[in-house]
Design a protein that fits this description.
- The chain is mainly alpha-helical.
- It contains 18 helices and no strands.
- The longest helix has about 35 residues, at about 295-330.
- It is globular and about 60 Å long.
Length: about 475
């Protein structure tokens, strides 16, 4: 009996020690979540959208992102729900099968997202090395994608810690520095009285027609705020748990400003007809610097290389991060035991190879269907990533509504609101936005060539169908994964 008490006390002491060791300040949580949410991939599409970008950013940030993160924080603070992320939250409300499905969707969505990242890398390099055929020749584009993808996958064997350190520096040099400098040069451009290609006022900011083109323009703004829920499990580690709400609101404000100034720097200095989604950032950088009297042609080549490195670092994070959760699932029998294996550095390399194989299949479908149209490939991959991630949020929102209706008695350290009715109303509003955005992703953008519009819808529907079926098949045979 005494031995049992001693073991229990040692376990409790160990848990308390881990909690103290992993204590987070509000600023540290803000920094961690920023790296998951803020990206450069959407800045060119935002700039092409025009003045209404501000309206879309406010809707996506205030009416959707903040509620989503608040709900995630509440679910993560429930006793016993702090580990496992969305799998645990959905499982607690809707059952094991639905929890597994949500986690699988979250894992698979990034496979198409990686194609988007690689298109940005190739677009940046095509300008840096003055090789436009990188972007216009589908065979060359696919070959470069495979080189980037499998080289980034192979380097994962050095371990998550070193990958994280490399990615941190690549983010600073390849994303943060170019974007911040672009915004600074934009202010110089405005101060010099240079011509602006759009005007911001109440008349131009608000969309005047609610049609397919207007709704399609909103889709990239949803993706810009996806991923904020990933840091919710850390709410238990905050020194002051109530500061979580302020952190998420601060992140929303930061992301809105970052995306707004970055996109305006592109949209106001480059005519809409000249903005390409995959090359828009680097092209705008050079054009902007030339306009203010700096050697833009040279500096845009340097920025193109830096941006490519930064996005590759982001790609490395997405290869290593989500696979940790799937590795835990494989250990618990949700996947064949073959995948419940790591290297000597605790890297689930077999899962990473599986993920990269899925990315390869997606790259074949999108790249060769698009032909020489690099923007079409970018748009399809962006829309497919958004649609698949929104499937995760639909399940999460249903789980939260069920939680507030049936499990309000569960103890938690954080509440979005103490009033269950208000919480459910907020969740329903977020659900409506999510469902509308999901179906809108299937509407081709206005600039999509007529001969590719059917291919656009077919590719999105096919990828969403495959993604929907895979976790159900895996779950059905989970009791037979004994090899």
């Amino acid at each position: 009996m005494d031995e049992e008490i001693e073991v229990t006390s040692q376990e409790n002491w160990g848990q308390e020690k881990d909690l103290v060791y992993n204590r987070l300040t509000a600023f540290k949580l803000f920094a961690m979540t920023s790296s998951m949410v803020i990206s450069v991939n959407e800045l060119a599409p935002f700039g092409k959208t025009g003045p209404t970008a501000l309206f879309y950013l406010l809707i996506a940030g205030i009416a959707w992102f903040i509620p989503i993160t608040q709900m995630a924080g509440e679910m993560a603070s429930i006793d016993g729900w702090s580990e496992g992320g969305i799998f645990t939250w959905v499982k607690g409300s809707l059952g094991e099968k639905t929890g597994w499905t949500a986690m699988c969707y979250q894992w698979i969505h990034i496979t198409v997202g990686m194609c988007t990242m690689m298109y940005v890398v190739i677009g940046a390099l095509s300008i840096a090395f003055d090789t436009p055929w990188f972007n216009t020749n589908p065979l060359v584009r696919f070959g470069l994608m495979m080189l980037i993808l499998w080289a980034t996958t192979a380097i994962q064997v050095i371990g998550v810690r070193k990958i994280g350190q490399i990615a941190e520096w690549l983010f600073i040099l390849g994303i943060a520095l170019p974007v911040i400098s672009l915004i600074v040069f934009f202010f110089v451009y405005v101060a010099q009285g240079r011509p602006l290609h759009m005007t911001l006022n109440w008349h131009t900011i608000l969309p005047h027609e609610l049609d397919g083109a207007t709704l399609v323009a909103f889709v990239p703004f949803m993706l810009a705020f996806c991923g904020g829920e990933a840091s919710a499990p850390h709410v238990k580690n905050l020194i002051h748990p109530k500061s979580y709400s302020k952190v998420m609101m601060g992140l929303a404000a930061t992301a809105i400003c970052f995306d707004l100034f970055g996109s305006m720097a592109i949209g106001m200095t480059v005519p809409k007809s000249e903005i390409q989604n995959s090359t828009g950032f680097v092209f705008a950088y050079g054009k902007l610097l030339n306009s203010i009297g700096l050697p833009g042609d040279l500096l845009q080549k340097i920025v193109g290389v830096l941006l490519a490195c930064g996005v590759v670092g982001e790609l490395g994070n997405w290869i290593s991060g989500p696979n940790q959760g799937m590795y835990e699932a494989a250990k618990q029998g949700y996947m064949p035991k073959f995948f419940a294996h790591t290297t000597s550095r605790h890297v689930p390399f077999r899962l990473m190879v599986l993920q990269s194989l899925i990315v390869t299949v997606s790259a074949v479908l999108i790249t060769f269907t698009s032909g020489a149209d690099a923007d079409f490939a970018f748009n399809v991959s962006l829309a497919a990533t958004t649609a698949q991630y929104l499937m995760v949020y639909m399940i999460m929102l249903v789980a939260y509504i069920v939680l507030k209706r049936e499990h309000e008695s569960l103890h938690r350290t954080y509440y979005m609101t103490k009033n269950p009715v208000v919480s459910i109303i907020i969740a329903l509003i977020a659900m409506v936005i999510t469902i509308v955005a999901f179906f809108v992703t299937f509407i081709p953008a206005t600039e999509t060539p007529d001969n590719l519009r059917i291919a656009y819808v077919f590719l999105l529907a096919l990828m969403c169908l495959v993604v929907s079926v895979i976790p159900l098949i895996l779950y059905r045979y989970k009791d037979k994964w004994n090899w």
